[in-house]
Amino acid sequence: MKRLLITTVSIMAIGLAACGNDTNEPVVDEGATTTPTEQPADTNTDGTGTTDTTTNGTKDETASGTTDDMKADMDKLSFREIEVEISYGNDIEYEAEIEQDRNEPIKAKVEDEVNQVYLKGQEAFDDLYPKVEQLQLTKDSTNEETINQVLKAFGLKSDYQKFDVEIKFNDGSKLDIEERK
């Protein structure tokens, strides 16, 4: 009986210590590396009262509600996906893509080694959309027509070593041009 009483008192003491003190102030473990008011490093508040997850310091478009805006913009185009890869030698490339899979968020990225610009998500989409909006290409566009329009719209030089563009149109057709100099 004595042993049971000591065990019960010990458990109660441990429970009370874990609950904090009677002043309702948080108990801070002095060995802890964070304080109770710190936010995790992978979130930020956008000023609207919502917290968005981030990737490399940019908002995730699925959390910020801009996916609908990107979809509405893409619906204005005759194609649903575009991928551009242009190599200029010395391992310098321009790569850009907008990908719109069914029932998935729109993905966009720019890896521009020519101008040292690297974007993902909404920032990449905002950079690319005005460029792809200028393109007047069809599945029957010639290589020369496609290359000229893409270089002009993206502001790129024609002294490339390899040019590769793939466009998936809304009707399911494709335009796939690859040229090497």
UniProtKB/TrEMBL annotation:
Signal peptide residues on this chain, from the entry's feature table: 1-20
Keyword line: Signal
Organism (species): Sporosarcina newyorkensis
Comp. bias (Basic and acidic residues): 58-70
Start-end of Polar residues biased regions: 32-41
Pfam (any one): YusW
Record carries keyword Transferase: no
Protein name as catalogued: YusW-like protein
Region (Disordered): 21-70
Comp. bias regions, Low complexity: 42-57
InterPro entries referenced in this protein's UniProt entry, alphabetically: YusW
